[in-house]
Amino acid sequence: MFPRAKMRKMSAASSGRVKIGDLPEDLLRRVVSLLSARQAVQTSALSRRWRHLWRSAPLLRIVPDEGFQTVRGLNEFVKHLLLLRDGAAPLDACVINFYCCEFDSYRYPSSDEPDVGLWLRHAVSRGAQLIRVEVYVEDEPVCLPDLPLVSNHLRVLDLRLVEIKDSLVDFSGCPSLEHLKFQGGFINARRISSPSVKHLIIDGSGFNRKFRTRISTPGLISLELEFWGSTPLLEGMPLLVTASVNLDHECRDRCANTEFWDCGDPECDDCDVMVSDGDGCVLLQGLSGATTLELTTESRVFMFRRDLMWCPIFSKLKTLLVNEWFMTSNMSGLACLLEHSPIVEKLTLQLSKEPRNFVEIEDSDKPCKQAFLFKNLNIVEIKCQEGDERVKKILKILSQNGIPLAKINVLQTKRRPRRKLSTVVHIILCLDI
Fold it and tell me: How far is the C-alpha of 75 from the C-alpha of 77, rounded, in Å?
């Protein structure tokens, strides 16, 4: 007669059903990794087999749940968690993700700072290949320790809503790092450097307004750059393939009086261009090796127009997208870019929905450059809103410079009709707002 446990397994196998307890331990560890750190520890109460699985789970997720009411309680828990983890077990990934405002006692930050730096160093020392840190604080971001990361295993680093200083962004000690992302937060460093990073995203992060942060990533393949504060200086990126740079109204390099970088007003703080790095390109030189390039900016941000004074040769560029910043008299800025892009095949001109906020093209019959500058273009796309009068002027200047109208596609978006005030009031009343 078979033992009951064996009979249950045979019955489950014959019915085609597999219980979670029948899975091998490697799979069970991955199941535990899907839980928060606190929930993973609680699985030790399920049975003797589950007692120590959490100690060697390949993914560590430090996130708050209903078990923590204070930052201090979370700090104490994680400290003991890290001490009790199996030191020989590899850690594939570590995710630190919480909002400090979720805790009752975070109104006293001096006594209850989250130990994010300690957790980050632990993940690095355990050979984590992926690390993501996202810690939201209402007043000021949590400042990570100003210490370099040293790891032969780290491949992906994603830092969100935290403050970063100099030593932390020196990634010379991380030869395997390929994906680097900064989202939100503040980069208070004079230099970001990595010989191995291939993909860099800076999305909504801030840079110090008193100096330019230099970005040295010679192995970079793709770049996405959108920020506030001073424009960072891009060093050479010979392997760059795709790049997207957006300079919005929060960029430091702008002027409310002019579209260029010197309005002539000695009291204008906006025109205080930092010259500590000397003359030369800030952005375009580093982007000159790209095959696909998007350059968009708010009209008063002058960085692209300033960089054209030292415009490099874009010897590999085939696809180019720009918005209104090129729209000076006869589009001389655009002509300069095309002159320095000998093999460009597709050009997209993206016009905003609010043309009154931008510089209008002056009407002139004089071509801006000789026609041969544009002979390699196969297609030009103009994206605009229906009825945009600027399109006529653009078509005129392009045709004067050797681009047949047959190669130009105008993609218009229909304007949304404005609702009458009585209609809006009727809708609000119907919604009972």
Answer: 5
- Cut 0.85: pTM above it: no
> 240-268: per-residue pLDDT in tens?
999 999 998 899 888 766 665 665 565 56
Which residue do the tokens 């979720």 mark? 102
Distance between CA atoms of 234 and 286, rounded to whole angstroms?
Answer: 5
Residue 84 and residue 203: Cα distance in Å, rounded? 36
Structure tokens at 196: 């191995």
| Pair 102, 134: CB distance under 8 Å | no
Sequence letter at residue 371: A
The residues, any chain, with a CB within 8 Å of residue 354's CB and separated by 6 or more, are none
CA–CA dist 315, 87 (Å, integer)? 51
d(CA 97, CA 85): 20
Q: 144 with 163: CB under 8 angstroms? A: yes
**What's the distance, Cα to Cα, between the start and end of the chain in Å?**
73
Element (H, E) at 146: none
